[in-house]
C-alpha cells in the first residue's frame, strides 16, 4: 500500500525537482580519496530552512570523505520528496523519524525514540533505509502568544478545549489532513478550531500570522529560536500526539556503503537539539546555509 501510494505521485516528483531553488555539485578536494565506488549522491531537503541546512551539512561531510554530491534543496513537503526518493530522483535527505513513520503507517502508535526507530525500519518501502538517528529532535509544538496563554490559562494542548472554537489554527497546508495535525488534534484532544489556515512549515508566515492575530494557535518546531526570542508559550503535549522526531538520514539503500554510513552516522552523533537552535538562530539573521554548515562541521571535526 505504501509503495503504491508513493508511486502514484512519483511522476510529479520529476516535475517538482525541475523547479528547485538550489542545485549545487560538490567535488572532493584534490587528494581526497574517492568514496569506494559510490557514484554521485543527490541530496534533497524539505521546504524549510532547517531541512536545507542539514542537507547542506550532509553534502559537505560526504564531500570531505571523497563522495561527489549534488544538492537539491527546497523540494517541498514529505508528500513530494518521498516519491522523489523512491523513484531515484534524489538519493538522500534528512528526515524526522516520527513524522516519517506517521506518513508511512497511518496507524502507528510508537512514541519514544527507540520505538519509533524500530517501527520505522519495518514500515520503510523496499530500497530505502535509515541510518543511525541523531539525539537531536525538532518536534511539532503548538504555540500561543504569552498574552493568550495568560488570558486563557493555557499550559497544555488539552487546555485549549474550552476555547478552541474561538481560535484559528495555523500550520503547513498538509497539516489539514495529517494525524499529527488537525486530524489528531480532533481525535486525540477533541479540539475543534474555528478554522485552519494553511501557511508554511513553522516559518515566517506562521510566525507573522500569530504575532498579528490572524491565527491564535500556531504549529512551530521545538528547535525554533523564535519561541524564546518572541516570548511565545509552547503548550505541553500531555497526550503524546506528537511522537519523537529524531533527525535521521534517509537514503536509497543502493547508495549506502561503509564510508557513507560512517560519515552520516558521525554527523548524527555530533548533532544536538541545542546545535539546531543555535544554527537556526544564525539562519534567521540571514547567515548562509554554506557558512553555518561549514562552521558546524569544522567545530565538530568533520571537515577532513
Number of helices: 12
Kindly, what is the distance between the CA atoms of the first and last residues, rounded to a whole number of angstroms? 42 Å
Q: How many strand segments? A: 11
N-to-C series of helices and strands: HEEHEHEHHEEHEHEHEHEEHHH
Strand order of the largest sheet: 8-7-9-6-10
Structural class category: alpha/beta
Rg over CA atoms, rounded to whole Å, is 19 Å
What overall geometry do the principal axes of the alpha carbons give? globular
Helix content: 40-55%
Oligomer: single chain
Most strands sheet = 5 strands, mixed
Percent of residues in beta strands?
15-25%
Q: Low-confidence spans: pLDDT under 50, at least 5 residues? A: 1-16
Q: Let me know the average pLDDT.
A: 89
Overview of the molecule:
Helices cover 41% and strands 18% of the residues. With 304 residues, the protein is of the alpha/beta class. Strand 2, helix 2 (49-64) and strand 3 (69-76) form a beta-alpha-beta unit. The model is unreliable at 1-16 (pLDDT under 50). It has a 5-stranded mixed sheet, with helices on both faces. It has a 3-stranded mixed sheet with strand order 1-3-2. Strands 4-11-5 form a 3-stranded antiparallel sheet. It contains 12 helices and 11 strands.
Amino acid at each position: 500500500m505504501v509503495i503504491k501510494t508513493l508511486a502514484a505521485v512519483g511522476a510529479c516528483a520529476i516535475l517538482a525537482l525541475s523547479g528547485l531553488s538550489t542545485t549545487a555539485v560538490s567535488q572532493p578536494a584534490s587528494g581526497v580519496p574517492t568514496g569506494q565506488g559510490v557514484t554521485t549522491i543527490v541530496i534533497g531537503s524539505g521546504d524549510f530552512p532547517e531541512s536545507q541546512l542539514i542537507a547542506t551539512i550532509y553534502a559537505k561531510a560526504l564531500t570531505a570523505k571523497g563522495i561527489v554530491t549534488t544538492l537539491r534543496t527546497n523540494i517541498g513537503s514529505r508528500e513530494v520528496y518521498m516519491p522523489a526518493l523512491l523513484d531515484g530522483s534524489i538519493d538522500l535527505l534528512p528526515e524526522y523519524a516520527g513524522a516519517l513513520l506517521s506518513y508511512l503507517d497511518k496507524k502507528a502508535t510508537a512514541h519514544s525514540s527507540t520505538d519509533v526507530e524500530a517501527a520505522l525500519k519495518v514500515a520503510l518501502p523496499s530500497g530505502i533505509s535509515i541510518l543511525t538517528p541523531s539525539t537531536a529532535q525538532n518536534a511539532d509544538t503548538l504555540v500561543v502568544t504569552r498574552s493568550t496563554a495568560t488570558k486563557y490559562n493555557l499550559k497544555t494542548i488539552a487546555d485549549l478545549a474550552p476555547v478552541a472554537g474561538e481560535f484559528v489554527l495555523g500550520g503547513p497546508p498538509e497539516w489539514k489532513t495529517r494525524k499529527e495535525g488537525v486530524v489528531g488534534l480532533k481525535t486525540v484532544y477533541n479540539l475543534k478550531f474555528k478554522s485552519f489556515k494553511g501557511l508554511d512549515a513553522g516559518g515566517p508566515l506562521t510566525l507573522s500570522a500569530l504575532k498579528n492575530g490572524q491565527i491564535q494557535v500556531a504549529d512551530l518546531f521545538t528547535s525554533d529560536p523564535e519561541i524564546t526570542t518572541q516570548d511565545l508559550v509552547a503548550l505541553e503535549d500531555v497526550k503524546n500526539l506528537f511522537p519523537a522526531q529524531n533527525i535521521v538520514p534517509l537514503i536509497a539503500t543502493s547508495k549506502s556503503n561503509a564510508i557513507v554510513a560512517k560519515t552520516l552516522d558521525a554527523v548524527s552523533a555530533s548533532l544536538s537539539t541545542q546545535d539546531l537552535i543555535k544554527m537556526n538562530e544564525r539562519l534567521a539573521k540571514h547567515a548562509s546555509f554554506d557558512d553555518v554548515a561549514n562552521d558546524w562541521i569544522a567545530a565538530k571535526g568533520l571537515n577532513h
